[in-house]
Amino acid sequence: MSSLAGVSASNLRKDVRLEWRSKDAINAMLFFALLVVVIFSFAFDPTAEESRQIVGGLVWVAFLFAAIVALNQAWMRELRNQVLDAYRVSPAPANALFLGKAVGNFLFISVVEALLVPLFVVFYNLRSVGPTWQLVPVFLLGTWALVVVGTFFAAISLRTRSREVMLPLILFPISIPAVLAMVEATTMVLTGTETPAFWISLLLVYDVVFTTVCLLLFETVLHAE
Amino acid sequence: MKFKIFAVITFLLLSYALYQGMWAAPREATMGEIQRIFYYHVPSAWTSFLCFFANFIASIVYLARRNLKADAFAVSTAEVGVVFCTVVLVTGPLWARPVWGIWWTWDARLTTTLVLWLIYVSYLILRRYSTGQATPTLAAALAIFGFIDVPIVYMSIRWWRTQHPQPVIAGGQGSGLDPRMWHAVLWNWVAFMALAALLIWVRYRLERTRQQLDEAHALKAVGHAEGSFTR
């Protein structure tokens, strides 16, 4: 177990250091999500009251698209210099690679979200009516829901022709309940109409179930020949 | 020979089920003749769900045993399941428009069926775009994700929709179904299951032939390589 934690941590450190030096994923995601924010505000041109209703959807669609940008790059790095092949023959546990990668993606996407949420507040004149702190579990659980399945599916789409196109095609259908939960919970908090307790627990169930499935199947996918 | 006999049986079953649905079952009181689409809509739905369940089992068997036969079965059931699921999604709006006055409503069962269709279409797309020996493993992993997702989808959509007005379902079926109607539904289901089995059979044989051809090509390539090496 300690080796799992240790190898995961060193994988994570490597990814964070690479990202810190290149800032490839974060820059691409930030600019992409910024473009989505601007284009949506042209497309809908909402008033303050309307934006409370629709921003839950806009925020998560923007982050979903931005996450695709980062997830597609996540495994590409490992293809250079046959790192992934080296990993396959090494005795390190496969799940350590997956966990390091997933936690790394989670951090990068969370940074982008933290930078972009103020932008949404400014551009859409947002003022939350419900208890704003409830957005914290929604964002943490929601981001993990996107990232854990996304990281796994990015490893699958890596093996296909036209990889970049493949990831959203397989990720979006599976993510529908998670996206629905994030959007509904965010809208409920912003409009203050109802408590988002059901949606937060649904996200929790989704996270627990799919994290388990990912850990059970990752080794198989990594070694698929 | 066995295949031909089964094809004839399927044809007879489909004919009898057609008679049951179109003539033997009584005319529905409020909806009229349009209700007869029920005998195609519901059996197609049951058949497609069973196909997806078979795909899930076959995927697990493939991952456990690495048996290419299980993979051939998985791809056949997924394709036939998508076909029947498409029939459900096409006959649904055709029925809803005259009865509810709308083509589509985002209610729990409709939406779940649509998401189910999306998941298995993405499975087929993955199979199409994936290259080489890894395809069956990757597809089996996606199939497991997809099947586990279905109850979560259903739960989320039911909760999402119970907060909004429900569509008025004229003359709800289920408890108040005439025994002759049950008869027609069940015969149609049996006939559709036979048709699905027949299609899966054809598709399975095709997939097995393709796999054997691939293996033969691979063996031949190895043979050539060895030949040139010894020379």
Give the key terms.
heterodimer; A: 225 residues; globular; B: 231 residues; mainly alpha; de novo design (two linked rop proteins); 6 helices; 0% strand
What features would you describe in this structure?
The complex is a heterodimer of chains A (225) and B (231). Chain A has one domain. Chain A has 9 helices and no strands. Chain A has helices at 2-22, 24-44, 48-74, 76-79, 83-89, 94-123, 135-157, 163-191, 197-222. Chain B is built from 6 helices and no strands. In chain B, helix 2 runs antiparallel to helix 3 (68-100), helix 3 packs antiparallel against helix 4 (108-129) and helix 4 (108-129) runs antiparallel to helix 5 (135-162). Chains A and B meet through helix 7, helix 8 and helix 9 of A and helix 4 and helix 5 of B.
Summarize this structure briefly:
The complex is a heterodimer of chains A (225) and B (231). Chain A is mostly helical and 225 residues long.
